[in-house]
Write a structure and sequence with these properties.
The structure is a homodimer.
Chain A: H1 30-45, H2 52-59, H3 73-97, H4 104-120, H5 122-128, H6 139-160, H7 167-189, H8 194-197, H9 201-213
Helix pairs in contact in A: 1-2, 1-3, 1-5, 3-4, 3-5, 3-6, 4-5, 4-6, 4-7, 4-9, 6-7, 7-9
Chain A binds a DNA duplex through residues 10, 23-27, 30, 51-54, 61-65, 67-69, 71-73.
Chain lengths: 219, 219
DNA sequence: GACGAAAGTTAGCAGCTCTCACATATATTT
DNA sequence: AAATATATGTGAGAGCTGCTAACTTTCGTC
C-alpha cells in the first residue's frame, strides 16, 4: 500500500521514468491507482459492486480525492473499460500474430484471445460490454471498440486477400465476432453448466471459423 | 416455506375476477407492481440505474414496504429476471410453433424471438444475462435458463429426429444459442454501428442455422 | 520569492439500503 | 362473533455512498 508513496524526489530526473504516464504531484499517479483498484473491485464484487469511496480507501486517499481526476463514478468506469479494451485488443493482435498470416489458425487465435480474456476477467469483460450510461458521451470507447472489431476484420481480410472494407469480409467478421462474443458470455455466465464445460475452446473456434469462412470458394 | 408461491387463487370463486391476478390485501398486489416498476426503471435508466426507493415511490408505498416482499434489492432484480425469462421462453416457443416442426425456419424463428426480445427490452435483456450476485443462490433462475436453452435443443432435436439428450444435438444447439446470443448483445450494444445495421435478422439467422445444422448429413 | 494551478483535505448535504418498533388489515380458530 | 395470529403497511433512523464547497498544501513557472 505504502511502498511508493514517499517518492518525494520525483523520478523525472531519472531517465528510466518508465511506467508513470503522468508525473505525480503529491502521492503517486492516483489516477492509475484508482483505475486499478476499481478494476479489482469490479472483478471481485461484480460490475455494480464497487464504490468510489472503497476505491479511494484502497488507494489511501480521502473519499473526495477521486473527483479531482474523474468527474463521475461513471468516468472511472469508463477509464477501466478503456484500459481493458487496450489490453483486449493487444491480446487479440498477439493471438493473430502467433500464427501464419491468413491461416485459419490466425483467425481462431483471435477468437481464442477474446474468450481467454472473458474467462480471465469476467467482471471486467461484462463491464466492457455492459456500459449503458456514459457510453453515449464516449467516442473514444466506441473507437476502441471498432479497433477491436478491426482486428477480426483484418484477420478475415488477410485470409481472403480482400480489402478490409469489403462487404463480405465485414459480414463474415461480424459473424465470427458475434459467435465468439456469445460463447464468451455464455461461458462465463454458466460455469457449472454442462454444455459449455464439455467444449474445448480451440476445437470449437476452429470449427466455427471453418464453417463461417469456408463458403468463400463458392462465392 | 415457499414465500412466493402463494397463488392460492382465492378469487377462484369470483366469476368476474378479471384483472387482478392476486387478491389484494391492503393496496394491490404490491409484489407484481414493484417488479413492473423495476422493470421499467431498468429499461429506461439501465440495469444499475434503479433504486428500491424509486420503485416504491412509483408504486405509491413507503420506502420500507418493498422489504416485506423482497429481502434484498437483489431479490427484486431476481424477480424481474424470473418474469423476463418466462416471457423470453414463451416467445421462443411461440416462434418455434409458428413454423413446421423440424423445419429450418422453426429453428431460425427461435433465434428471431431471442433477438426480438433483446431489441425490444435491451435493459432487461442485459439484466437477465448480467446478474452476478444472487445468481448463485437462485436455482430457479438457473432452471429457467436451462428451460430457455431447452427450447433451442428441442428445435434442433426435432429437426434431426434425435433425442434432446444427444451429444451432437446439444453441441449444435449450444452453437446456435451462442451465435444468437452474441448477435443480440452486439446489436443492442452498438445501435449506430455499421455492420449490425446492415444485417437483416432473418436472413442472417437462416444462414447461421443452415451453416450449423447442415453438416448432419455427413455425420 | 511570488503566484497560479494542480492535487489533496475536511465538512456536509442529499439519497439510498435496510432494520426496528409500531399500526392496521386480513385470515383462522374457537 | 370474538379473539388471536399473520401478513402487510408506516415512520424513524443508522450507516454508507456520491458529490460539492471551501480550504490547505505542493508543484511548476515567472
Amino acid at each position: 500500500m505504502s511502498p511508493d508513496q514517499n517518492t518525494k524526489d520525483t523520478s523525472a530526473s531519472q531517465p528510466t521514468a518508465t511506467v508513470t504516464p503522468k508525473a505525480a504531484y503529491h502521492h503517486g499517479d492516483l489516477r492509475a491507482q484508482l483505475i486499478a483498484a476499481v478494476r479489482d473491485l469490479v472483478e471481485t464484487h461484480g460490475p455494480d459492486g464497487f464504490s468510489v469511496a472503497e476505491a479511494a480507501r484502497r488507494a489511501g486517499v480521502s473519499s473526495a480525492a477521486p473527483y479531482k481526476h474523474f468527474k463521475d463514478r461513471h468516468e472511472i468506469l469508463r477509464g477501466v473499460v478503456s484500459e481493458a479494451m487496450d489490453r483486449l485488443r493487444a491480446a487479440m493482435e498477439v493471438g493473430a500474430a502467433a500464427h501464419q498470416a491468413g491461416s485459419l489458425d490466425a483467425v481462431a487465435a483471435v477468437g481464442q484471445a477474446y474468450v481467454d480474456f472473458a474467462r480471465a476477467e469476467p467482471g471486467v469483460f461484462r463491464l466492457v460490454f455492459g456500459l449503458t450510461e456514459g457510453h453515449e458521451n464516449a467516442p473514444d470507447l466506441l473507437a476502441k471498440g471498432e479497433g477491436c472489431f478491426g482486428v477480426v476484420v483484418q484477420a478475415v481480410a488477410t485470409r481472403f486477400g480482400l480489402p478490409p472494407g469489403d462487404a463480405d469480409v465485414q459480414r463474415r467478421a461480424y459473424m465470427l465476432w458475434s459467435f465468439v462474443h456469445g460463447h464468451s458470455f455464455l461461458t462465463i455466465d454458466m460455469k457449472h453448466k454442462v454444455a459449455s464445460a464439455e467444449i474445448d475452446d480451440w476445437d470449437y473456434l476452429m470449427g466455427i471459423s471453418r464453417a463461417i469462412l469456408a463458403p468463400v470458394a463458392q462465392a
